[in-house]
Amino acid sequence: MSTRIVVLADTHVARGSTRRLPDAVYAHLDGADAIWHAGDVLVPELLDELAGFAPVEAVLGNND
Q: What pLDDT, in 10s, does the model give residues 29-54?
């Protein structure tokens, strides 16, 4: 059995942006067992969106 972890960082999503992440990222999120964000999220709503795919763990970056 394997565990699929998606690691993201430096997404730098702008407030009010209608497009959160590139389409290619969403393809990797499907079927993930966990998502780790290594900082610089900038908008907490992105973490909520990611949590719809799998449990999320995140740390603060220098811009958060």
A: 999 999 999 999 888 889 999 999 99
